User: Which sequence fits this backbone?
């Protein structure tokens, strides 16, 4: 094939044609990261100072062998169950918070919205419920736990309440989104033909969305197991509390055992939740 | 000859299935679920009486009342502002480090092309899973031993946990990339690093960016509370002042936390809309 005279075959460039912008953006990113490094006191060489290295190495070395005494294992088993129980009880109470609030807040179940705009009273009620859900959700569960530890004292109650409130907010918000994003024809028909709101929910809205709702709840249960370990660090019982006290005593063997149990627990919850969600389809 | 009975226009009503059937998996599952919930409530020594008593309600009200007025004196507001900036910086730097480490670890954790033996795939994935399943707060408590109190330990803790999460997501993105461009380069004899830089990375970059943004949103919540174990930021201020029952100051800190989280939510929502437009 003949090329028109004069153009010639274009040579592939020897070097990256966009090297200048790449260099510029890399430099800019580093310049932006600098103040962050200052703010976080980011000094990796601190880790390599002989003193810190010695302490860290001694702590890491004490991880082996892991503590496997029968008394200690029994304790770990009991605390692991408590962790799971706190998460389960918390999620159950969170459902008790989330379900009524969701029923109040979804606009699919609004009778006045069937004919054009929603009436003013119900509209503001729905907005108020939504705002409540947002506030519940955006305070981290650890902060709720700190507050409840002051009120009800150390122990599982604070953890259960903290999970119930934060997860109640999360579940309520996402349930609302799921219900409103799905097919609403059946529900609307029921409402138009004179069914009550609860009837329309139970026979129209719930059957269409049940699988998705359940699957999200299971996923949140898995998250709750993770956070119930963390809550133990502020004194809400369970594996986290034991982990915290072992860490404070620099008992590496116990820490190693509990970390292992914890990784296994999270992996198991992960597996169970994935299996359940697949079974739900 | 008897008249044949006409067939029913509709099929006859059937009774609904019995409530419990030994072959029905869902029944067993529901039973197990109810059992789990009951066992949980029964085995925890929950102090409902104490929580729902008038006494507790009063102390709760007193507690909430002490939050007001929040301490807004300039000196303290400045301290909270510094803490907020520290929290923000921790989350940004932690996420950035994790994104880098995630990309570096995603390569050995994925099968790059057909016929790649991928020896390192399972060990790297095991490492990523271990990093991921230990929460940030536990990492922070572990790192305090060698990094000392302060935001540095928190940043590292965020980076370690997020590396596990992002590494796994990145590895999946890399494995799902359309193989054409990479194969074309490999057929020309281009080395694996340059295949990654010029074929794989450009294809997965938008996905990596959106995963990283999503994690940043999560990390800012985590960074706000990491300080409770002494790892800097707003959490450290919160734990300190709550421990000393400075309720006015606690209220200011909580307000700053809520504001920060809400701001990041709005920002990240906006950025994601802008990116997907």
Assistant:
């Amino acid at each position: 094939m003949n090329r028109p005279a004069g153009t010639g075959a274009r040579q592939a460039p020897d070097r990256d044609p966009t090297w200048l912008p790449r260099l510029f953006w890399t430099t800019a990113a580093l310049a932006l990261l600098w103040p962050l490094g200052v703010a976080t006191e980011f000094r990796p060489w601190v880790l390599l100072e002989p003193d810190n290295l010695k302490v860290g190495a001694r702590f890491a070395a004490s991880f082996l062998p892991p503590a496997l005494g029968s008394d200690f294992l029994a304790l770990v088993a009991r605390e692991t169950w408590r962790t799971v129980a706190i998460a389960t009880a918390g999620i159950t109470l969170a459902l008790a918070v989330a379900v009524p609030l969701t029923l109040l807040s979804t606009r699919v179940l609004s009778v006045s919205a069937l004919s054009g705009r929603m009436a003013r009273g119900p509209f503001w009620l729905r907005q108020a419920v939504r705002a409540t859900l947002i506030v519940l959700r955006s305070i981290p569960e650890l902060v709720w736990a700190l507050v409840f530890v002051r009120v009800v004292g150390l122990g599982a109650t604070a953890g259960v309440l903290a999970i119930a409130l934060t997860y109640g907010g999360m579940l309520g918000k996402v349930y609302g989104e799921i219900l409103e994003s799905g097919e609403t024809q059946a529900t609307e028909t029921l409402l138009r033909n004179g069914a009550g709101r609860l009837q329309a929910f139970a026979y129209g809205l719930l059957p269409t969305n049940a699988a998705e709702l359940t699957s999200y709840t299971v996923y949140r249960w898995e998250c709750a197991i993770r956070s119930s370990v963390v809550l133990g660090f502020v004194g809400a019982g369970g594996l986290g509390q034991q982990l915290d006290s072992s860490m404070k005593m620099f008992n590496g063997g116990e820490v190693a055992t509990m970390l292992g149990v914890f990784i296994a627990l999270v992996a198991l919850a992960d597996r169970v939740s994935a299996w359940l969600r697949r079974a739900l389809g | 000859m008897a008249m044949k009975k006409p067939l029913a226009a509709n099929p006859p009503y059937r009774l609904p299935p019995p409530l419990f059937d030994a072959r029905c998996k869902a029944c067993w599952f529901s039973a197990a679920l109810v059992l789990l919930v009951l066992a949980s409530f029964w085995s925890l020594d929950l102090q409902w009486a104490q929580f729902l008593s008038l006494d507790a309600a009063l102390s709760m009200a007193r507690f909430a009342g002490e939050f007001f007025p929040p301490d807004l004196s300039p000196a303290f507001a400045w301290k909270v502002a510094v803490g907020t900036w520290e929290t923000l910086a921790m989350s940004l730097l932690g996420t950035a480090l994790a994104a880098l480490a995630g990309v570096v670890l995603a390569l050995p954790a994925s099968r790059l092309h057909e016929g790649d033996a991928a020896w390192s795939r399972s060990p790297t994935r095991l490492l990523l899973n271990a990093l991921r399943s230990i929460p940030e707060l536990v990492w922070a408590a572990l790192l305090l031993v060698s990094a000392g109190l302060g935001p540095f330990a928190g940043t590292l803790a965020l980076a370690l946990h997020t590396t596990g999460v992002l590494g796994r997501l990145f590895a999946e993105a890399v494995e799902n990339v359309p193989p054409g461009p990479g194969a074309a380069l490999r057929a020309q004899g281009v080395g694996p690093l340059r295949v990654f830089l010029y074929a794989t990375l450009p294809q997965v970059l938008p996905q990596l960016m959106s995963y990283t943004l999503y994690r940043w949103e999560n990390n800012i919540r985590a960074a706000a509370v990491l300080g409770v174990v002494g790892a800097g930021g707003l959490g450290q201020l919160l734990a300190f002042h709550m421990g000393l029952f400075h309720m006015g100051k606690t209220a200011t800190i909580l307000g700053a936390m809520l504001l920060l989280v809400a701001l990041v939510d709005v920002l990240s929502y906006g950025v994601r809309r802008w990116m997907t437009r």
Remarks:
- The mean pLDDT of chain B is 84.
